[in-house]
Amino acid sequence: MEINGVPIEIPEYPESEYLAIVRMPSAKFMRICKKLSSVGDRGDRDTVVIISVDKERVDFFTWGKAGTSTIFYTAGKPKEPTLIEEPILIEMKEKVSLTLDLST
Predict the structure, then answer these.
(1) Which of 8, 47, 62, 66 is the most exposed place for a label (fewest CB within 10 A)?
(2) What residues does the Proliferating cell nuclear antigen PCNA C-terminal domain cover (predicted)?
């Protein structure tokens, strides 16, 4: 490929196979991270969130000076059924857990 007559190389990324995929609105994920980052204030240490996924639900967990907090969502069912919102979709081959650093 060329841009303005200058050849550029486009990197190729190998196909990845994931053990679990969670589909949720990005605004919902952002709210979860904000809530957990306030609980997870660990002073001089970073805020860490553990996300665990199984076939029925996704759990978000953190701990800090203020205590511990867990937020979970069940696949396909809105947590607040009175609201019109997209369901959480989980595709899973194997139960997985991921640790994220939410420090800014």
Answers:
(1) 8
(2) 14-101
